[in-house]
């Protein structure tokens, strides 16, 4: 097999990988994106606050986004802390509303835009092997052999490359989310969050008449007494901000805040969740994925890796401060 040569190989074609591919193509780089899924299985239905639209515009994807079936969200109703219920109405935003994503079509759309700008995007192929050969990397995905001087880990929380390189992950807390969806014909355009004993709730409508509700709890501090996740759901369902069915088999997702001790090095960098996975309470993971992806050309083409590392560190500190303040507020209620 003769290797094909690229200026950069991106491992993972989620929001971070796709944003990086688009930005690199604008800078004239030859790019390969390797994505193990076909974006054909259900993904989370994240909320995008209105400000993320400025990034989608920067990526040249506003029209493609507008053609999607995302559900408009008018703001956030929160019952959090001693002040009781409050409303953050997005009406004051220049972008009008936020969105509850059809995440499968969102990821597909970004990958399509990346391909339109000239990136080679492989779907349904996991990155399998990587090795150093002199000053280059040699990577294997399916039947493709690639050579490149620079690799980007955009593989999400998994941190495929970082793990192989032995870069350690650090956690704050042990948050997990128990999520379930059910049909709901209500035209509810609000995201609702509520702090309760032992955790907090998030609920919103998804495109296609489904309601998503997720109960987040820190399993480090939770005594499950042998209860299964369905039992936890059943015992908490009454505290959801909307009437939630009690008999559900929730999906479990790791939702702890996680970061890596190193996010850049000679000939590599990590972006998106691979570098810093944020608390879902902040609803800022996708913004972060797109922003960090847009910074890849600075590092690859202008050698600004130390500047990137410092930026990730300041984002991490700011996020942790904000997170601690929010949870302290919930506890003081
Ligand atoms: C419960 C929960 C709720 C959340 N809610 C919100 C929200 O409301 N708003 C918000 O903005 N954010 C939210 N987030 C965060 C958001 O989901 C992530 O921050 C975002 O998806 C990160 O994008 P990414 O591209 O870095 O990683 P991912 O979206 O995880 O993409 C990584 C990609 O890499 C691929 N991949 C992995 N390994 C390989 C491999 N070896 N080879 C090839 N491909 C590979 C995967 O298939 C995947 O497509 C939430 C997170 C959780 C856990």
Notes on the structure:
The structure is a single chain. By secondary structure, the chain is an alpha/beta fold. It folds into two domains: 212 residues, FAD/NAD(P)-binding domain; 81 residues. It contains nine helices and 23 strands. The chain has a seven-stranded mixed β-sheet, covered by helices on one side. A six-stranded mixed β-sheet has the order 9-3-2-13-22-21. A hairpin with a 5-residue loop joins β6 and β7. α1 packs parallel to α4 and α1 runs parallel beside α7. The longest helix has 27 residues. The protein is globular. The N and C termini lie far apart (63 Å). Bound molecules: flavin-adenine dinucleotide. Flavin-adenine dinucleotide binds next to α1, β3 and α7.
Q: Can you identify the CATH class of the largest domain?
A: Alpha Beta
Helical content (DSSP H or I, runs of 4+): 25-40%
> Low-confidence parts, pLDDT < 50 over ≥5 residues?
none
Number of helices: 9
Q: Order of strands across the biggest sheet?
A: 7-6-16-17-18-15-19
Terminal Cα span: 63 Å
Multimerization status: single chain
Shape: globular
What is the count of distinct domains?
2
CA-atom Rg in angstroms: 20 Å
Which structural category do the helix and sheet elements fall into? alpha/beta
- Major β-sheet profile: 7 strands, mixed
Approximately how much beta-strand content do the residues carry? 25-35%
Look up the CATH topology of the largest domain: FAD/NAD(P)-binding domain
Tell me the number of strands: 23
């Amino acid at each position: 097999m003769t290797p094909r040569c690229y200026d950069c190989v991106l491992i993972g074609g989620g929001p971070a990988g796709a944003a990086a591919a688009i930005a690199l193509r604008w800078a004239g780089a030859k790019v390969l994106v390797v994505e193990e899924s076909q974006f054909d299985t259900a993904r989370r239905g994240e909320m995008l606050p209105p400000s993320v639209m400025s990034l989608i515009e920067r990526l040249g994807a506003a029209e493609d986004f507008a053609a999607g079936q995302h559900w408009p969200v008018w703001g956030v109703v929160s019952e959090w802390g001693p002040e009781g219920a409050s409303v953050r109405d997005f009406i004051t935003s220049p972008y009008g509303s936020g969105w509850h994503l059809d995440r499968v079509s969102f990821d597909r759309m970004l990958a399509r835009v990346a391909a339109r700008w000239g990136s080679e995007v492989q779907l349904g192929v996991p990155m399998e092997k990587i090795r150093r050969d002199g000053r280059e990397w040699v990577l294997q995905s399916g039947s493709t052999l690639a050579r490149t001087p620079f690799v980007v880990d955009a593989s999400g929380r998994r941190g495929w490359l970082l793990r192989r390189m032995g870069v350690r992950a650090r956690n704050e807390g042990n948050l997990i989310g128990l999520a379930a969806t059910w049909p709901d014909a209500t035209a509810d355009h609000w995201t609702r969050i509520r702090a309760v004993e032992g955790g907090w709730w998030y609920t919103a409508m998804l495109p296609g008449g489904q309601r998503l509700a997720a109960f987040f709890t820190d399993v480090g501090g939770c005594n499950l007494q042998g209860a299964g996740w369905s039992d936890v759901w059943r015992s908490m369902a009454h505290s959801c901000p909307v009437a939630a069915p009690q008999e559900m088999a929730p999906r479990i997702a790791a939702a702890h805040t996680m970061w890596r001790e190193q996010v850049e090095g000679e000939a590599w960098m990590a972006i998106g969740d691979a570098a810093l996975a944020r608390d879902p309470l902040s609803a800022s993971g996708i913004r972060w994925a797109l922003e960090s992806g847009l910074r890849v050309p600075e590092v690859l083409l202008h050698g600004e890796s130390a500047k990137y590392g410092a930026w990730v560190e300041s984002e991490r500190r700011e996020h942790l401060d904000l997170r601690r303040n929010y949870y302290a507020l919930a506890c003081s209620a």
